Amino acid sequence: MLSILVIGPHPDDQELGMGGTIARLVKQGHVVHLVDMTDGEPTPRGSPQKRAAEAAEAAKILGVQRTQLGLVNRQVVHDIPSRHKLAEVIRRHKPNVLFVPYPVDAHPDHVAVTRIAQDARFDAKLTHTSIPGEPWHPKRVIYYFCTHLRMSFQPTFCVDISDQMEKKMAAVRAYQSQFSGEGGFVPDMVKTLNGYFGGRIGTAYAEPFFTHEVLGLGGLDQLI
User: Fold this and answer.
1) What global pTM score does this model have?
2) 108 CB-near residues (< 8 Å, 6+ apart)
3) What is the number of domains present in the chain?
4) Domain containing 13: what range?
């Protein structure tokens, strides 16, 4: 059983990018915790209270807990205090794997959060530091796609989420303040995208991921 942290710039990024994989990991018995770096507000139809309730509902649907780190939406910067705040969370949860946003993005918060997470992974293992908790070093960093750029993703692997697709979509739709009105096209776009990547690996739906580091397999029976 693994401990896994999924780090998102705003509530809903994790669900959009890898909600099906989160649900699959939970079903497999792994401990998955979501970290929202900001509360995601202000937005045109949201509020801190509404967004918090939506995030809680999405987490309930996926079967996970979540923590809000308290950085300021639209003002996230890659700095040492932010790194150390996240490093403290890493020490608390002792994850084997960090999932973080793909680093090429139009949204400054997304770019900054990925840099913060990469460096917090390093900071969390330091021994002579004021960061609370015992040193810990997550074995792997894996990038999920929640980018604002209209780009063709080039993943290094995909996860079959055919059995989890409806749960993912329910978690996405929990964010009614974000995905109604002008944002109403997003759920359908996400489902189409996951259908495309499912087709790339011969399944109905899949989520794409990227890693700079080599992944190991226990055997070819783990391939689909």
Assistant:
1) 0.96
2) 74, 76
3) 1
4) 3-212
Question: Residues for the chain: how many in total?
Answer: 224
Task: Kindly give the residue spans of alpha helices, DSSP state H, lying in the chain.
Answer: 13-27, 48-62, 80-93, 108-123, 165-173, 186-201
Instruction: With a cut of 90, say whether residue 182 has pLDDT above it.
Output: no
Q: Partners of 100 in the beta sheet?
A: 143
Does residue 114 contact residue 86 with C-beta atoms inside 8 Å? no
Residue type, position 199, single letter: G
Render pLDDT for 58-115 as a digit per residue (tens, 0 to 9): 999 999 999 999 999 999 999 999 999 999 999 999 999 999 999 999 999 999 999 9
Terminal C-alpha separation, the chain:
21
Query: 């944002």: which residue's tokens?
Result: 183
Does residue 217 sit within a domain?
A: no
**Cross-sheet strand order for the sheet of 65-71:** 65-71, 31-38, 3-8, 97-101, 140-144, 206-210, 157-160
Q: What are phi and psi of 36, to 5 degrees?
A: -95, 115
In order of 163, 167, 169, 204, the CA distances from 47 in angstroms are: 33, 25, 22, 35
What's 20's domain CATH number? 3.40.50.10320
| Measured distance CA(173)–CA(187) in Å, rounded | 7
Residue 86 C-beta-side C-alpha neighbours within 13 Å = 34
Nearest in space to 144 (alpha carbons), one of 163, 158, 161: 158
